[in-house]
Design goal:
By secondary structure, the protein is of the alpha+beta class. It folds into 3 domains: about 10-105; about 110-185 and about 255-330, D-Amino Acid Oxidase, subunit A, domain 2 (D-Amino Acid Oxidase, Chain A, domain 2, 2-Layer Sandwich); about 200-250 and about 335-390, FAD/NAD(P)-binding domain. The chain has 8 helices and 19 strands. It has helices spanning about 10-15, 70-75, 125-140, 150-160, 180-195, 235-240, 300-310, 360-375, and strands spanning about 20-25, 30-35, 40-45, 60-65, 85, 95-100, 115-120, 170, 205-210, 215, 220-225, 230, 250-260, 270, 275-280, 285-290, 325-335, 340-345, 350-355. The strands form 4 sheets. A 7-stranded mixed β-sheet has the order 8-7-14-15-16-13-17, sandwiched between helices. A hairpin with a 2-residue loop joins strand 18 and strand 19. It is globular and about 70 Å long. The chain starts with 7 loop residues before the first helix and ends in a 17-residue tail after the last helix. The structure holds flavin-adenine dinucleotide. Flavin-adenine dinucleotide binds near residues 203, 255 and 361.
Length: about 400
């Protein structure tokens, strides 16, 4: 079965499969799963402690799930973006709440690994310099402090896939990494489950500001709405140009391919000399790097792949570098100041941009998603958007 976002049926299936479980019916026919007379999963009827903050309406679809420890509970509820939550009523209880309508979100990001990165260098001084920079960054709280510097034998013992040119390195513990394609599949499943009409292979050819509404043209029809969010990468530039907006975006092209080593590294490798990241994704090692500015968004230069392969050679061992699959190129949306472009167009407030994430679209996407959702549907973005304004370069 393909991995997918969670559904209500999964909750029933998993709860029913626990040893010695009995299913009883609550007062309104709601399912309650118990072991030894204690409820560990129960579908609640609406109660005063969990309600829509805007309408005051009690949530009709809350599921209560027992967790093992207070730490487990905290880990699930403390992220404001998490679908899990708690209420005062549950203070001191080892349980979390989740709405059935938000279950699909539980699956999003579940493939993320937290094993950290192994940063690899051929030169010990270069490794020490980067190590010191990350120590400074860790003080600000953006990442964990790196583990001690490793010498040649130690770094190669860490990952036997590394070749003779790997002479120094260090682990940044706890850093997360993910197979981006699985994340996108989960996200698509989650928004579809929430009732969103997702159309793939449907290029938007124009955006029209109608004053009291906005409309986008597709090959099938024109779609009208109160607001359009353009999260169309470097191509956002072309979509807003007819609205009289010159967006400071250019394509910084990255290249990627997959290798098939007989033994996978245990975590993500930052191969600094080759300027690439090597990410284990299933049975492949995904290599990604390079920054090419040639004024195009789509031209693929095979020599860029060759250049990466040449630099990789001494850094890896027992990998057939001629056996490559999934060679591709993607244009990163680069901005002059390295910051994303977020927010409404000054002259067209119904047109909202969410682009320009430079090299960090996967990393920053969830934050941008939250900010833009609050801007469009909530009480405002929750942060000062001035540094990210589309018009800031004029
Ligand atoms: C080799 C490589 C390595 C990377 N590594 C990392 C990394 O390690 N960490 C990280 O955080 N990020 C990484 N990225 C992500 C990258 O740097 C970008 O930040 C990210 O792709 C930007 O996301 P985006 O959704 O804004 O734009 P894009 O990914 O460019 O997506 C834009 C989407 O809009 C669609 N579109 C465009 N025009 C239209 C239209 N007219 N109508 C309908 N749809 C349209 C496109 O088809 C595309 O699907 C990497 C990218 C590459 C290429």
């Amino acid at each position: 079965m393909r991995e997918r976002a969670a559904r209500v049926a999964d909750v029933h299936e998993i709860a029913a499969a626990m040893p010695h479980t009995t299913l009883i019916e609550g007062p309104k026919g709601n399912a309650i799963y118990q072991v030894g007379g204690k409820s560990f999963v129960f579908f609640r009827t609406p109660r005063p402690d969990a309600f829509d903050p805007d309408t005051g309406e009690r949530y009709p679809d809350v599921i209560v799930i027992w967790v093992e420890t207070e730490a487990d509970k905290l880990a699930l509820v403390q992220d404001p973006g998490s679908p899990f939550f708690t209420t005062e009523h549950f203070n001191g209880h080892l349980s979390v709440l989740v709405r059935a309508s938000r279950l699909a979100e539980v699956g999003v990001g579940r493939h993320a690994r937290r094993d950290g990165y192994l940063v690899v260098h051929s030169d010990r001084d270069a490794a020490a310099e980067q190590h010191a920079r990350i120590v400074d960054m860790a003080v600000t709280g953006v990442c964990a402090a790196p583990e001690p510097l490793l010498g040649p034998a130690e770094v190669r013992a860490h990952e036997p896939l590394l070749g003779d040119a790997a002479r120094a390195g260090f682990v940044i513990p706890g850093e997360r990494w993910i197979d981006a394609s699985l994340l996108i599949d989960d996200l698509a499943d989650a928004v579809r489950s929430a009732g969103v009409d997702v159309r793939t292979g449907t290029p938007v050819s124009a955006v029209h500001d109608l004053g009291d509404a906005v409309e986008v043209d597709t090959p099938e029809d024109a779609v009208a709405g109160a607001v359009v969010v353009l999260a169309t990468g470097v191509w956002t530039r072309d979509l807003v140009a007819p609205l009289g907006v010159k967006l400071q975006l250019q394509a910084g092209k990255g290249y990627s391919f997959a290798l098939h080593p007989s033994r996978m590294p245990t975590r993500l490798l930052e191969l600094s000399d080759a300027h690439v990241m090597a990410t284990p994704v299933g049975d492949r090692l995904r290599i990604a790097g390079t920054m090419e500015f040639d004024g195009t968004t789509d031209r693929f230069h095979p020599e860029r792949i060759q250049a990466i392969v040449r630099r990789l050679g001494p850094l890896l061992r027992d990998v057939d570098l001629t056996h490559r699959t999934e060679e591709w190129m993607g244009p990163r949306p680069m901005t002059p100041d390295g910051l994303p472009i977020l927010g409404s167009l000054a002259a067209h407030p119904r047109v909202v941009l969410a682009t320009g994430h430079n090299m960090l679209g996967i990393t920053l996407g969830p934050v941008t998603g939250g900010v833009i959702a609050n801007l469009v549907c909530g009480d405002g973005p929750g942060i000062d958007l001035a540094p990210f304004a589309p018009a800031r370069f004029r």
